[in-house]
Amino acid sequence: MALPRPDAPSLRGAVDLSSLVSRATHTAAAEARGQSPGEASGSPSPDAGTIVFAATDASFESVLDLSMTVPVIVEFYAAGIEPALASVVESYGGRLALATVDGTANPQLAQAFQVREVPASAAVVGGRPLSLFVGQPTTAEVRQVLDQVLEVAAQNGVTGRLEVTPPEPGAESAEEPTEPPLPPLHQDAYDAIERGDYPAAQDAYRAAIAQNPRDALAVAGLAQVSLLARVEGADAGAVRAAAAQHPRDLDAQLAVADLDLSGGHLEDAAGRLLDLFLDLDQAGRDRVRQRLLEYFEIAGVDDPRVGAARRRLTNLLY
Fold this sequence. Notes:
Elements: H1 23-33, H2 37-40, E1 52-54, H3 60-66, E2 72-77, H4 86-90, E3 97-102, H5 107-112, E4 120-125, E5 128-134, H6 139-155, H7 171-175, H8 184-194, H9 198-211, H10 216-231, H11 236-245, H12 250-262, H13 266-277, H14 282-299, H15 304-317
Parallel strand pairs: 1-3, 2-3
Antiparallel strand pairs: 2-4, 4-5
Helix pairs in contact: 8-9, 9-10, 10-12, 10-14, 11-12, 12-13, 13-14, 13-15
């Protein structure tokens, strides 16, 4: 995980992201169809006062506009890795906004921000990008980085605040049912993940599975947090270089497959391991099979890529 030093954030030499969008093109196309520019983008712009919203390649112009008022944190995620910064950003009371981006579905943005794996977070201040971190740091680490972003924003004259209208008393409870509490061990795992203690979260999920082997949420949760624990602090460049230098080394290939999956590239991760499968001894094949089953849990059974990889694994097994 890469966290900037306290004196690191700076917009000096930053690339202008305005090349991602063409105001003239959007406006002309919108006027020709009788639409507003936000409608023409293919995704709605955030409403006034909206702190957390989804962004896409097509709608990113609204993020650039908003970044002239407040810094916008951009959080990249993918299937099996949900956005996690909303509550922290909301706690700043409108001094920051959060745009969540599916990195797999929005390749222009992923390329513009040089995102090679997810989760990853950046910021846009005054239309210019600022790299923040890769992975899921603790809440305390996130706050430290966001405080630095606000300092950079102040230095560049971006000091606005979004006016967020609080819900009327009783409105939230009337519109949205109260979520039932998590089972105790699931709550223990969630709390451990929040503080960045992945081993404790793994222990909690294992205990839940021991109590109920059919606890599908615990099985999926264990797979997800195990992946986070394995990729935390990994040097992506070094991992990929080791895999390239030792193409038949199972540990090296498992490590780079984890990076592929963390970036949302299930096909690459599964294909890499399945290509190696027949050359392995039985112990190695068992390790690959177990790792692939974890990947399938993370991606979800409805993902068509899971079905394709599962069929290929079955053919190799039998």
